[in-house]
Design brief:
- The chain has two domains: 6-218 and 389-420, no CATH class; 236-383, Glycogen Phosphorylase B (Rossmann fold, 3-Layer(aba) Sandwich).
- It is 32% helix and 13% strand.
- The chain contains 14 helices and twelve strands.
- Strands 1-4-5-6-7 form a five-stranded parallel β-sheet. It has a five-stranded parallel β-sheet with strand order 9-8-10-11-12, sandwiched between helices. A two-stranded antiparallel ribbon has the order 2-3.
- Strand 8 (243-249), helix 8 (259-269) and strand 9 form a beta-alpha-beta unit.
- Residues 1-26 and 417-421 have low confidence and may be disordered.
- Residues 1-20 are annotated as: Disordered.
Length: 421
């Protein structure tokens, strides 16, 4: 078998890492086919986080690896007393979370000849992260991915399809892997010819690459059952919102024309806004930003260092209506998870209009109360698809992971149908 079977990957270290002993389930449940989970050499996944103290040059990320990548439990400080559903999660651990959930997937097969899709649990983001900020060489940034591609090209299933039925999850944004010049930022992994046919799930996609799709960032909420999810939805639905809008961001001093500064100024001049300056690291505690958003009807979501932000998902988790200024922040990113009718759950205000004097407060105040109520309810109903459950057995409804995998499988089946015509 290519790379061994999924049973070989079972570890006793953590309960969430234990694969379920599936039989190939009924075709109605696996209507898009079965998935073969590669058992990669440890150097490409678990071996990366074995030395967790080296994963980031100045931050200890070891606690975020606990509980299968969900992070440390918030314990008694969990909202609504939901101990077991709240964790201090780091979005960059998404590769580990997806790997754990894939081990529990109901549509796995040990037979590559029976598979419609092949999952590659390569922790590309974790492997690159340690080399991004310390002036590392091109060789150190590209070394692991080059090794991985070399290994992959020797696999029989890969040779049959050139990767067109393979997919992986990368826990960073696409631009960290699209270095076009030797002196540029990041790795050149996604520019490699061998990666062009592979489907990639990322925290931020390249909108011009049809083989990429963005998936929601990890929030701190990972419901352990449907009751906890429903209780949280009821809680945010009943909150008294004391502010019209809120805003959390870190302004960039080196950019005097930074759009976030304009929003901070508008917020300060409004009697209906509350802001949080993240410059001092206070927003590293995502419960603080969650609390900020829970007290407002709308939350402003400009682009940050990249177009997408974890703050978008903390905003949705708070039951707060997001206000976007770039289409690439959400509408062209999370197409499998967010409704095509953007106006049903969000507000879009052109950043150019804001720069030319449009007041965000005036735009939001002009929205009819019944429309606001409808949008708030739409956000609350979106929550199951925005969060990652503790395990694949936690919820009866599809969570963010389920939606992502179904999207991949549906796209593969669609491609096969097109080829057969």
């Amino acid at each position: 078998m290519e790379g061994g079977s999924r049973q070989d990957t079972a570890r006793e270290e953590e309960a969430v890492m234990k694969p379920l002993a599936h039989q190939e389930t009924a075709s109605s449940e696996c209507m898009y086919g079965y998935i073969y989970l590669y058992n990669l050499p440890d150097i490409f996944n678990r071996g990366i986080h074995a030395n967790c103290s080296t994963l980031h040059p100045w931050t200890d990320v070891c606690p975020t690896l606990e509980n299968g990548g969900l992070g440390q439990s918030l314990g008694e400080s969990s909202p609504l007393g939901q101990v077991g559903s709240w964790y201090a999660s780091n979005p960059f651990m998404a590769e580990m979370v997806f790997h754990n959930r894939m081990l529990q997937h109901n549509c796995l097969t040990d037979n590559p000849d029976a598979a419609s899709a092949f999952y590659l649990p390569f922790y590309a983001g974790l492997g690159l992260g340690r080399h991004l900020y310390a002036g590392s060489s091109i060789e150190s940034r590209d070394g692991l991915s080059n090794h991985f591609v070399g290994w992959l090209m020797d696999q029989p299933a890969w040779k049959r399809s050139s990767g067109s039925d393979h997919f992986l999850m990368i826990g960073r944004n696409t631009w960290d892997f699209r270095r076009s010049q030797d002196e540029g930022w990041g790795s050149g992994f996604l520019n490699k010819p061998e990666m062009q046919n592979v489907t990639k799930l990322l925290l931020e996609r390249n909108p011009w690459d049809g083989k990429e799709m963005a998936v929601p960032c990890l929030t701190n909420f990972h419901p352990q059952n449907d009751a906890d999810l429903a209780a949280w939805q009821d809680h945010i639905r009943g909150l008294q919102r004391n502010r019209l809008f809120s805003f959390a961001a870190m302004p960039k001093d080196r950019f005097p024309d930074d759009f976030r500064r304009i929003l901070f100024k508008q917020c300060e001049q409004s009697g209906q806004c509350q802001s949080l300056d993240c410059s001092n690291g206070i927003c590293n505690d995502n419960q603080k930003t969650l609390g900020l958003f829970m007290d407002s009807v709308f939350c402003l979501q400009p682009r940050g260092d990249s177009f997408t932000r974890r703050s978008i998902f903390d905003c949705l988790l708070a039951g707060t209506i997001p206000v976007f200024f770039w289409h690439r922040s959400a509408y062209k990113q999370f197409e499998w998870h967010l409704p095509a009718d953007h106006d049903s759950y969000s507000v879009f205000i052109s950043r150019y209009d804001v720069r030319n004097g449009t007041k965000v407060e005036d735009v939001l105040n002009a929205i009819a109360p019944e429309k606001v109520q409808s949008m708030r309810e739409a956000v609350i109903q979106l929550l199951p698809k925005m969060v990652y459950a503790v395990s694949g057995l936690s919820l009866k409804q599809k969570d963010a992971f389920d939606v992502a995998i179904e999207g991949v499988m549906r796209s593969f089946k669609g491609s096969m149908v097109s080829l057969q015509r």
